[in-house]
Amino acid sequence: MTTAAPPAIRVAGLEKSFADTVVLHGVDFEVAPGTIFALLGSNGAGKTTLVRILATLLRADGGVASVAGWDVATDSARVRQSISLTGQFAAVDEVLTGRENLVLVARLRHLAEPGAIADELLRRFSLVDAADRRATTYSGGMRRRLDIAMSLIGEPSVIFLDEPTTGLDPQARLEVWQSIRHLAAAGTTVLLTTQYLDEAENLADRIAILHQGRILVEGSLAELKQLLPPAQVEYVEKQPTLEDVFLALVGNDDGADAANRTEDRS
Questions:
Q1: How far apart are CA 224 and CA 207, in angstroms?
Q2: What is the DSSP string of 188-213?
Q3: Domain interval for residue 174
Q4: Is residue 193 part of a domain?
Q5: Beta-sheet strands, E only, within 32-154
Q6: Per DSSP, what are the bridge partners of residue 137?
Q7: pLDDT tens-digit series, residues 147-192
Q8: Which residues pair with 194 in a beta bridge?
Q9: What are 94-108's pLDDT values in tens digits?
């Protein structure tokens, strides 16, 4: 009899406020190892605050969370050794070449053979032909792929991608999506925050919809679609899309409480 692997990420009753503004209201979810988990929500939903807590950059006010088996509050150093975080904007040095960026990070982490590490990541992310070009000449998609490659140096078991395709054109988004799929295929656990419905629909093994600091639903795409009945269009059954599920749950809440946007500034 085999036992299931423990969750790579476990969150239970997580709460966070800034002054009088409550940003997270008892958030609960688990992420299985080697899967892509999408945290889907509008601006101000609490996504970035949640990621910053899991990455040990913020302390929660209540609840517990663990990453790679380590408690984010009491074992923060162990958590940081197990993770990597890539934010909304690529953190590459544009004066350096792609290869120099990778070598620099490997050296900062005191790893042996930084050149070999850089060459392997350049190959893995299809950047070999651009390895000796300055990053300032890279397209948006190439720069983001380089950023993700840099975040993998040291082989973290969990990577947080906080809205990784913000501002990218459609072709660049597809390039980044392919890189994310490769991460999970290689065994890396990916927690992806996004406000793009198609991104969650195309990439995630499981999806949680976060709205005003609460998880409304969590499940696979197929499970979420079961929440709405299929539409009948000229006697042809039409299955609901993820967009239908999302809008049915959160509504067209463009006038959401301004306080919920505090997390994007925190």
A1: 8
A2: -EEEEEES-HHHHHHH-SEEEEEETT
A3: 9-92+155-265
A4: yes
A5: 36-40, 62-67, 70-71, 83-86
A6: none
A7: 889 988 988 999 999 888 888 888 888 888 988 998 899 999 999 9
A8: 40
A9: 899 999 999 999 998
In a domain, 4, yes or no: no
Please name the residues in contact with 127: beta carbons below 8 A apart, sequence gap of 6 or more: 98, 121, 142, 145, 146, 149
Residue of higher predicted confidence among 163 and 209: 209
Global pTM reads: 0.81
Question: Which of 45-49, 110-114, 136-140, 172-176 bottoms out in mean pLDDT, i.e. has the lowest?
Answer: 172-176
Count: domains in the chain: 1
> Which of 174, 181, 172 minimizes the C-alpha distance to 138?
172
Beta partners for residue 217, in sequence order: 209
Give phi and psi for 242, each to the nearest 5. Answer: -60, -35
Q: How far apart are CA 60 and CA 73, in angstroms?
A: 8
In a domain, 138, yes or no: no
Residue 214 lies in a domain: yes
